[in-house]
DNA sequence: GCGAAACTTAAATAAAACTTAAGAACAATT
DNA sequence: AATTGTTCTTAAGTTTTATTTAAGTTTCGC
């Protein structure tokens, strides 16, 4: 993992770099705001350890820059400014952690492990065919990047179809998915909903198999 | 946001609960390992503040349980055990942060904001859509640079929506965020609060998806 | 070309959300 | 402890929108 250490005290920097490398990071080091911003251009950096008191400016500016341009890049602040107000400010500006000097290296390493293990995390589940994308958790659907508003039943119907791409679902099966048990439906509801869906999406999305049912997806 | 406070000192717990509520969390409190595990069954909890010294066991067991079953649930440890070894252990077992008592409440709140904004991938303590800006730390909201006064529930509601921009939240989900467990709400409260919010902000801010829920932000 | 199945349309019905306003609960202040 | 003002909940009435129904039209396979 690629770590940028921004620290102007040469001695501290050297010691830290060495032990961070021992911890398995590839460490880049710089001592000024300017150099830090330079490094951040590169998109190579995955984790930042930031001292606030720098010779050519305030480390807080580096933090702001990072959170503006690469908001998910974790930053751990490491500084002599240990007042509560400083901490609150740093954390609220987007820092992921804040250690006041003097600190124990073991604690820093533990906190860096927390930050880096968070980098390896997952995303929400999406159903899609071509440029029709459904996010079930967020209850949203988009077509060609544009959000599409689907009423409840239409959403359920499309979801059923997308969950069974390539498989034919009979009207009966679809009804079972849309309606509670015992809630008999007396008419051509499914046909009507299909109709409405087709008006909102490309017509190839839902194919009819006469006498059998409907399928979504390519084939 | 639904927070579980695990703390056996009755006095501390009471004080903390109150100020956490003031910070806008719905707080559930328990004092034992057993009760904590119970609460965690419910899947309602989004954030945990954990004391380690509990009467019927070690809080570390609660942490282990969480990280086994609900990996991504953030846990902030808050304890009298302040040695480096304890900290490293706690953090390496999956805690997201670790504060040793005595601590300053302002710092705890700031660190909780870090944890909760990570849940919603917001970058700092400012949430905004267009010219509606919410400062979670300061508990203020403004619209077109003008401060807007929001009562607690309205604030919580707007916060929940802003934390989930683009995601649809059902009335049920919103209720879960505003009310503590067992505090059943019998009526159309959410609708009424939404109504009040809409009177104070541009009407495009909160969209209704009939039968599904509400969304804030552009889509 | 015939009949069954699916499509389309519009109106009727049902369901959800909005709007009010009143009073209960809660806080702050004296 | 009483008073005032604020915030929250309830509930009823209204409006809006989704869903169902039903009737007329088209399409498909035989």
Protein described:
The structure is a homodimer of 219-residue chains. With 219 residues, the first copy, chain A, is of the alpha/beta class. Chain A contains eight helices and 13 strands. The first copy, chain A, folds into two domains: 2-122, Rossmann fold (3-Layer(aba) Sandwich); 126-216, Winged helix-like DNA-binding domain superfamily/Winged helix DNA-binding domain (Arc Repressor Mutant, subunit A). Chain A has helices at 10-22, 33-41, 59-69, 84-92, 105-119, 152-163, 171-178, 189-200, and strands at residues 2-6, 26-30, 47-50, 53-54, 57-58, 75-79, 97-100, 126-129, 132-135, 140-143, 146-148, 206-209, 213-216. In chain A, strand 9 (132-135) and strand 10 (140-143) form a beta hairpin. The first copy, chain A, is elongated, with a radius of gyration of 27 Å. The relative contact order of chain A is 0.09. The interface between A and B is medium-sized, with 32 and 34 residues. Chain A binds a DNA duplex (30 and 30 nucleotides) through helix 6 and helix 8.
Distance between the termini of chain A: 43 Å
The H-and-E topology of chain A, N to C, reads as EHEHEEEHEHEHEEEEHHHEE
Biggest sheet of chain A, in brief?
5 strands, parallel
Q: Using the 3D structure, state the CATH architecture of the largest domain in chain A.
A: 3-Layer(aba) Sandwich
Number of helical elements of chain A: 8
The structural class of chain A is alpha/beta
Q: Give the low-pLDDT segments of chain A.
A: none
> Shape of chain A, please?
elongated
CATH H-level superfamily title of the largest domain in chain A:
Response regulator
On the 0-100 scale, what is the average pLDDT of chain A? 91
CATH topology of the largest domain in chain A: Rossmann fold
Tally of domains of chain A: 2
| CATH C-level of the largest domain in chain A | Alpha Beta
Task: Write out the strand line-up for the largest beta sheet of chain A, numbering strands in chain order.
Answer: 2-1-3-6-7
What percent of the residues of chain A sit in helical stretches (DSSP H or I)?
A: 40-55%
Total strand count of chain A, please?
13
């Amino acid at each position: 993992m690629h770590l940028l250490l921004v620290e102007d005290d040469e001695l501290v920097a050297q010691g830290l770099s060495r032990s961070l490398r021992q911890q398995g990071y590839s460490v880049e080091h710089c001592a000024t705001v300017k150099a830090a911003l330079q490094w951040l251009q590169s998109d190579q950096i995955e984790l930042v350890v930031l001292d606030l008191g720098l010779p050519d400016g305030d480390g807080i500016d580096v933090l702001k820059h990072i959170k503006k341009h690469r908001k998910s890049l974790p930053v751990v602040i490491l500084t002599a400014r240990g007042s509560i107000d400083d901490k609150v400010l740093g954390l609220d500006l987007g820092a992921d952690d804040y250690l006041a000097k003097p600190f124990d290296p073991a604690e820093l390493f533990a906190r860096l492990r927390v930050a880096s293990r968070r980098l390896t995390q997952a995303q929400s589940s999406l159903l899609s065919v071509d440029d029709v994308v459904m996010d079930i958790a967020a209850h949203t659907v988009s077509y060609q990047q544009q959000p599409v508003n689907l009423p409840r039943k239409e959403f359920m119907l499309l979801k059923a179809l997308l969950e069974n791409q390539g498989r034919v679902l009979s009207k009966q099966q679809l009804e079972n998915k849309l309606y509670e048990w015992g809630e008999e439906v007396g008419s051509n509801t499914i046909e009507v909903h299909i109709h409405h869906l087709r008006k909102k999406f490309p017509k190839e999305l839902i194919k009819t198999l006469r006498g059998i049912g409907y399928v979504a997806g390519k084939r």
